[in-house]
Amino acid sequence: MLTQHTVRSFDRELDYLAKKIAEMGDHACSIVERSVKAIVQDDYRLADELIAEDVILDKAEREIDEKAILVIARRQPMAVDLREIIGTIRISSDLERVGDMGKNIAKRAAVIAGTRQPSSFYSSLEAFVALALRQLNEVLDAYAKHSLDRINAVRERDGTIDAMYTSLFRELLTYMVKDSHNITACTHLLFCTKNIERIGDHATNIAETAHYVITGSYPLLERPKGDHTYEVGMRKEVS
Amino acid sequence: MLTQHTVRSFDRELDYLAKKIAEMGDHACSIVERSVKAIVQDDYRLADELIAEDVILDKAEREIDEKAILVIARRQPMAVDLREIIGTIRISSDLERVGDMGKNIAKRAAVIAGTRQPSSFYSSLEAFVALALRQLNEVLDAYAKHSLDRINAVRERDGTIDAMYTSLFRELLTYMVKDSHNITACTHLLFCTKNIERIGDHATNIAETAHYVITGSYPLLERPKGDHTYEVGMRKEVS
């Protein structure tokens, strides 16, 4: 049986992992936020800064993984404690990928520096990234508080992100059709919006991991998923 | 101490997980292969079949995770055994995402049905997906045989995939510039090629997980990574 002392230090280790996840979440959100700022304000210097920052999240993920495996080996936790540690490994991987999305956006911001689209597009893009990051922050906070209702609400809201993504996708296609000089820049912007849509998917992944950690079972597989631009047919944009 | 009997059944459990990973790998490759076939042969019926198949990989991932966590809880393995099981959880998540790439390509194949690009493009696309899947199969086989040299070779070859991706990216942009009626179809094809490039990234992720399982430490962070189309500047394509 575990002594009071062991239990206390085990709790400290779990708290440490939770703290690291929260830090990763904050950093990932900040990279993504500033990468979109680099596009909106056409600031390639900011973009270059961000590209270098991503490695911090790669290191954080590895640190969390190694610590988590150490804790499993040392404490041999059961049931919810074990799920919590495995969940930490999964969530850190999602957050590392969110950081990659930010880095990817920053790289494209640097490439398209000097090109501009109608200002309405940039306001939509800012609203879009704000929504995606709200989803991510909400699921991380809901998980920290083990609030199952809020976790499930995040999964249900993913459809809103997909709808905004599809409309931005259409908008960019029309700019490309209107003037072929926009094609390369708008293509990079298409990938940027796709990256933001994928942040929503990662928030959904985290919600599913959180659901599993708390309940011991996964939510139903049929959840609103990802990209609906497949529904963007051939006629609409080219006419 | 573990008895002979416990050791044998533990080995059986590890073998079971390895078998499941191999099955997931085969299925993921098959979905991706056929999704590209659906584009090349303009076969939207095949595309529709594939969209339904992806759920099999989602279920396989969850089955592997639950089994892996059960094995950790029951056997409380140490060192390399524990890393092997955690590695299984990571690799199954990469393979599930590879299946998603195939599903995504299939959805786009269905949307662009009836549109054609120059036949040279389709041959390049087939060569590209063959290369990405070769990388994936190689890393899975190298991991099954715990061959560190072959695992590291996979990481080093990732650059070839990026180079092919960049040239397909340029090619598609030129079709879009040439005729605005190509823009929507080529945009979907851009995302398809991006998905294939990401399969290469997943092969690299698996190589890193494999390296960690076998050696207990990760390879250096600075590895050739992902997408180099950021280097596709503004002038080249629009002139």
Q: How are the SSEs ordered, and which strands pair?
A:
2 copies of one chain form a homodimer.
Chain A: H1 4-40, H2 44-75, H3 79-111, H4 119-144, H5 148-178, H6 183-215, H7 235-238
Characterization of the model:
The structure is a homodimer of 239-residue chains. Chain A has helices at 4-40, 44-75, 79-111, 119-144, 148-178, 183-215, 235-238. The first copy, chain A, has 239 residues and is mostly helical. Residues 234-239 of chain A have low confidence and may be disordered. The interface between A and B is large, with 52 and 52 residues.
Largest interface, with counts of residues having CB < 8 Å to the other chain, equals:
A-B, 52 and 52 residues
Please give the number of β-strands of chain A. Answer: 0
What is the succession of H and E elements of chain A? HHHHHHH
Strand-residue fraction of chain A? Answer: under 5%
Could you say how many structural domains of chain A there are in total?
Answer: 1
Radius of gyration of chain A: 20 Å
Oligomeric status: homodimer
How far apart lie the N and C ends of chain A? 72 Å
Helical content of chain A stands at over 70%
Q: What's the overall geometry of chain A?
A: elongated
| Overall CATH architecture of chain A | Up-down Bundle
- Ranges of chain A where pLDDT stays below 50 over 5 or more residues in a row are 234-239
Question: Which structural class is indicated by helix and strand composition of chain A?
Answer: mainly alpha
The CATH class label of chain A is Mainly Alpha
Largest sheet of chain A: none
Number of helices of chain A: 7
Give the overall average pLDDT of chain A: 90
According to CATH, what is the topology of chain A? Methane Monooxygenase Hydroxylase, Chain G, domain 1
